[in-house]
Design a protein that fits this description.
three-stranded parallel sheet, disordered N terminus, 8 helices, Rossmann fold, five-stranded parallel sheet, 8 strands, alpha/beta, 234 residues, 2 domains, 42% helix
């Protein structure tokens, strides 16, 4: 599903890039002008994970399906932040310094960093793999993207169907990711309607995840549910 969303988003972008091909060359940092314009796209992915990889693949596939060829119509500077916020900030800063024509942020921390680095120069930003773009303050300015908000009610229904005797759901979440805080809040809001309680433990790094799981097991949770949390699933 994420791959399809990213492909659709890229198709829309491709049309926009094509429309920009005839603009005044002085108004664009892309090399060349008119039909010879080669746009520079900086892609910042928060970390290597199949779900996030699909987003990048889908984005590039969408450009290809729109008739744009890498190396001819655009070039890509792909960078991986290895699930580190400071690295994501450095990557976004380098994109801004190098004058890319577009930044793509895959996952909330990467997108937030790109948005902050691009804002002063008004470089357009596309985000994907983000649960709560409004909560991440990515809802204004020269930015657009897709959300992967969780169907929490459906997940609670499924857990109840699979484990009719379960009472407590354990959730490990990253305290620094807006998407995780949002999803956890929805779980906590809806849990009572399905006769569940939520036990959660926050982490600040991947190295803390195992201990957090052990803590929840010690509290006697009946099952676990994952969020779209880049730190935890990474």
């Amino acid at each position: 599903m994420k791959k399809l969303l990213c492909a659709a988003l890229a198709l829309a972008l491709a049309l926009a890039l094509t429309a920009c091909g005839g603009q005044d060359p002085a108004s664009s940092s892309a090399s060349g002008s008119g039909e010879g314009t080669v746009y520079r796209i900086g892609i910042s992915q928060y970390g290597e994970h199949p779900s996030l990889d699909n987003c990048r693949t889908g984005f590039l596939q969408g450009l290809e399906e729109a008739g744009l060829k890498e190396g001819v119509d655009f070039t890509v500077d792909y960078q991986n932040a290895n699930f580190d916020d400071a690295t994501a900030t450095q990557i976004a800063g380098s994109f801004s310094s190098n004058g890319v024509d577009l930044m793509v942020g895959i996952a909330t921390p990467a997108a937030v960093a790109c948005y902050a680095a691009a804002e002063e120069k008004d470089i357009p930003v596309i985000f994907t793999a983000i649960t709560d773009p409004v909560g991440a303050k990515l809802d204004s300015g020269n930015i657009t993207g897709t959300s992967d908000v969780l169907p929490v009610a459906a997940q609670l229904e499924l857990i109840r169907a699979l484990q009719p005797e379960a009472k407590t759901i354990g959730i490990v979440y990253s305290t620094s990711e807006a998407n995780s805080l949002y999803s956890l809040g929805v779980y906590e809001e809806l849990a009572a309607s399905y006769d569940f309680t939520i036990e959660s433990v926050g982490v600040t790094a991947q190295s803390e995840v195992t201990q957090a799981i052990d803590t929840l097991i010690g509290r006697g949770v009946d099952c676990f549910s994952n969020l779209t949390d880049n730190t935890v699933v990474g």
